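Lab notes, practical 5.
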Amino acid sequence: MEIMKQTDEIRVETEEEAKALIEDFKQKALENGYEIASYSSTKKEKKSKGEVIAEWWIVKIVKKW
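Output from the prediction step:
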């Protein structure tokens, strides 16, 4: 049995952290023998009575071997 594709979703607090995480995965891809098939980052917000009370980013990375 062999893993062919893996999708990771990771929560971070800021856009800068999201960008750094993606770059980190790109660097590790060379070392660990996989390629990044796709990646994205999405801003999420929690609202209460129309006001934003929390925000975070979801980073989605698809790795292929």
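Observations recorded by the TA: The chain has one domain: 5-64. Helices lie at 15-32.
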